[in-house]
Amino acid sequence: MAFDGITVAAVTKELREKLLNLRINKISQPEADEILLTIKGNSTQYRLLISADASLPLLYLTDTNKQSPMNAPAFCMLLRKHIQNARIVDIMQPELERVICMEFEHLDEMGDLCRKRLMIELMGKHSNIIFCDDRGMILDSIKHISGMVSSVREVLPGRDYFIPKTTDRKNPLTVTREEWKNIVAERADPVFQAIFRNLNGLSPQIAQEICYRCGVEGDLPCSTLKVEQTDALYDTLRDMMKQVEGGSFTPAMYLENGAPCEYSCVLLTSYGNRQAKPFDSVSELLQEYYAKKNRITRMRQKTVDLRRIIGTALERNYKKYDLQTKQLQDAGKREKYRVYGELLNTYGYDAKGGERELTVWNYYSNENMTIPLDPTLSARENAQRYFDKYGKLKRTAQALTELTQETAAEISHLESIATAIDIAQKEEDLAQIKEEMIESGYIRRKGGSGKVSKAGKGKPFHYVSSDGFDIYVGKNNYQNDELTFQFANGNDWWFHAKGMPGSHVVLRCNNREVPDRSMEEAASLAAYYSRGREQDKVEIDYTVRKNVKKPNGAKPGFVVYYTNYSMVVRPGTQGLTDQND
């Protein structure tokens, strides 16, 4: 579900109920495009997270605090100067726009009472947080938009603030029946597209819901609608908008196979076959739905450089491996030259000199063989020439075999680092990955030769199975080694995805017999935290920990085992209790 106008309306209602007449106690800017307001009053405290991230704009109340940078950015300092200790006097949403206006009352430098506004625009890549005075002049914004970037509106200090009207969309709260008929009249567009493209603040999911409630196929062209269907669509839209105007919201998350697939602040009857998880407030819903997605988005932004380095190294090694494999295949022809040489030594007396080829009996295959000859050389010299070729290719094959094995090991190591980057969730997880890349020579250490400690830089993932068994998952190669060889006991069960990079998973049995259900849940975790997490089924190897060995000089995370069982499972965390922070 997009952060649409209905969701913004639900958030606005909640903020008005909880924050009006309270005061701003603290302002921080934990990310370049994110503001965290701490609001106090009436013996209560709230934290309001406002994110203008282009890929995931958000606004909700949260219990989670975030660490601020040592030096506050300029926009944060400006907000502190003007609205620190200010009282929130109004929170409103213009029409059904994806915009929230927060109005503050505070004392200026002269002690006079004045007002300021914070305009929060939640519009995808156009999202912004804009600070204005009471006359609507922009004082500053978290993102500056010049005329070179946008021909519609400049967002710069000193400019007048306005909400851009780039499309001729109608306000769904006030659209009339006649306007509605003009929207859907004789259009070739599907009905649901005509709804969300011509009415402001509605998402495609809400448009499909409107169609579903009145029994109209949303993918049909508007031109096929009958008069009664057009009227039914309008009546359904008005019923939903009356619910929005009245503040009657039912925030819920919809689950499919136990995983969140959608959310809404109005009832989605079209999702009747999916489990609905209701929430008391829209902020709780947004926090649970978006917290993980937001964390993944932020981590992807922080790992861009690491991904680029690993991607470049992988591409180089893939090309090297393909070239070495091709050369090794060419070197496999060496036996033919050895046979040529031996047969020429045996039957060379038949050559009179000057021949370009000689047909002899091949006693290896019991058939005639034609041997190409250099007419300027004798049979013995041709034989020696073939033996020289054989020797050279034999030496090449021996060297290439070792090089190909080294390149394959390098690729496996790089892919394991790439997988660790994918599952990293915190800065401390990245610290260990960076240290491994430094030690492997992929990046240079900055600021001297101080080494980051491998231990204590993050904890493995921790889950509890349906039967109460603890399961631990390594987040990177250092943690994998530590988990397997320092933490796990010899009789604990060890799991790993077969033939692909992935985490080491340890199921602590504590000398108890482990039920099949817990074994399958541990295997599902090993599949989920591997490169095959998007596949329907993944084959997992498992064995007791004492069967897992680490060869001398092996790279971090690399192990061998020769006695194991296997099972095929679906990746996921179903049935497990998450013990992670």
Number of strands: 21
Integer average pLDDT:
88
Judging from the principal axes of the Cα atoms, what is the shape?
elongated
Give the terminus-to-terminus CA distance: 26 Å
Number of helices: 13
Uncertain stretches? none
Beta percentage is 15-25%
**Class from helix and strand fractions:** alpha+beta
The main pleated sheet reads as: 7 strands, antiparallel
Order of strands across the main sheet:
20-19-17-18-16-15-21
Radius of gyration using CA atoms only: 34 Å
Give the % helix: 25-40%
Structural features, described:
The protein has 581 residues and is α+β, with helices and mostly antiparallel strands. It is 37% helix and 21% strand. The chain contains 13 helices and 21 strands. The chain has helices at 5-19, 74-83, 177-184, 191-198, 204-213, 227-245, 282-302, 304-331, 334-347, 379-423, 427-439, 477-487, 516-528; strands spanning 23-31, 34-41, 44-51, 58-62, 87-92, 99-107, 113-121, 128-133, 138-141, 252-256, 259-264, 275-278, 357-362, 367-372, 461-464, 470-473, 493-497, 505-507, 538-544, 565-569, 577-578. The strands form five sheets. A seven-stranded antiparallel beta sheet has the order 20-19-17-18-16-15-21. Strands 5-6-7-8-9 form a five-stranded antiparallel beta sheet, with helices on one face. A hairpin with a 2-residue loop joins strand 2 and strand 3 (44-51). Helix 8 (304-331) runs antiparallel to helix 10 and helix 9 (334-347) packs antiparallel against helix 10 (379-423). The two termini are 26 Å apart. The mean pLDDT is 88.
